[in-house]
Specification:
alpha/beta, 7-stranded mixed beta sheet, 7-stranded antiparallel beta sheet, binds S-adenosylmethionine
Length: about 270
């Protein structure tokens, strides 16, 4: 095992231990409760208790990279699920997008609002005190999160039901057997020297599975998340195919040819 993967595994174990402790010991969590919300001098502590996940901030270099990977533009509506001190929402707002942080801890919500004010983006960056599991995030075009693997899995069905093309970026934690569309790990050279330097991107795929008539013949597609397999029946032959769906864009190879198309609702339109 490489030194980097030992460090990654150790960091993961430490965070999971911290997260696990908060879950397993509500009494301790209660005892560690943060200061009152009214305090404008409230300072959070990395590792402090949270409803389902402790607070550990994403390094700013990774926040920047996560929004780069999502190809965020000012037209996007960004939501950070479990928004902590507001850094991702504030960064998105500074880049011109409207952004909303959902955070269960009211002290963190107030801190985020003050931070947005200080950074001059209170008009674009909003924060709501809410449980992410009870939040409608269907308006988001970009979702960011730094939660836990099992929470990502619980959110996955809802995420897969979002508009095709919605970008999801997670700090460090994956989404079970839904492979990432991109994974980037920052290094010291690229501005991330501590833990939590890996970001994963998924793009919600359109539903392409089924049978489609195309000019070349008949296409039968099976879909596992963004991955396609199936057959193309053309000129009396059957060709196996492999491809993928990226938002509404569909590409596949069959019979030595590459096909490019787009889902228009339930219809596949080839270019
Ligand atoms: C690991 S921190 C990430 C903070 C921020 N997104 C970042 O990347 O810097 C997770 C955050 O989720 C919040 N949280 C935990 N459970 C939550 C829930 N059910 N609903 C909303 N927020 C929650 C915690 O209070 C904490 O601030």
């Amino acid at each position: 095992m490489s030194a980097a993967s030992v460090v990654r595994r150790t960091s993961l174990a430490l965070l999971l231990a911290a997260f696990g402790a908060a879950l397993a010991a509500p009494a301790l969590a209660q005892a560690q409760k943060a200061p009152a919300a009214s305090s404008s001098t409230y300072e959070p502590t990395s590792g402090q208790e949270g409803k389902d996940v402790v607070w550990v901030p994403t390094p700013q270099a990774l926040v920047d990279k996560m929004l780069d990977m999502a190809r965020m533009t000012p037209n996007d509506f960004v939501m950070d699920l479990g928004s902590g001190d507001g850094r991702t929402v504030i960064t998105a707002a500074k880049r011109g997008a409207r952004a909303l942080g959902v955070e269960y801890n009211p002290d963190m919500v107030e801190l985020s609002k003050r931070n947005a004010e200080k950074e001059g983006v209170a008009g674009k960056a909003s924060f709501v005190k809410a449980d992410l599991f009870e939040t409608d995030f269907s308006r988001a075009t970009v979702i960011t999160m730094f939660l836990l693997p099992d929470i990502n899995l619980r959110l996955r069905p809802k995420i897969l039901g979002l508009k095709p093309g919605t970008r999801i970026v997670s700090n460090s934690f994956t989404m079970g057997d839904w492979q990432t569309d991109q994974t980037v790990t920052l290094t010291q050279d690229t501005g991330c020297s501590a833990s939590w330097c890996t970001a994963h991107l998924w793009i919600v795929p359109a539903r392409a599975a089924g049978t489609h008539r195309i000019p070349q013949g008949e296409l039968t597609l099976k879909q596992e998340f963004q991955m396609l397999t199936g057959t193309l029946r053309a000129e009396g032959k059957t060709f196996a195919l492999e491809g993928r769906v990226r938002g509404e864009d569909v590409t596949f190879n069959a019979g030595g040819r590459k096909y490019i198309g787009r889902m228009n609702g339930k219809r596949l339109e080839l270019r």
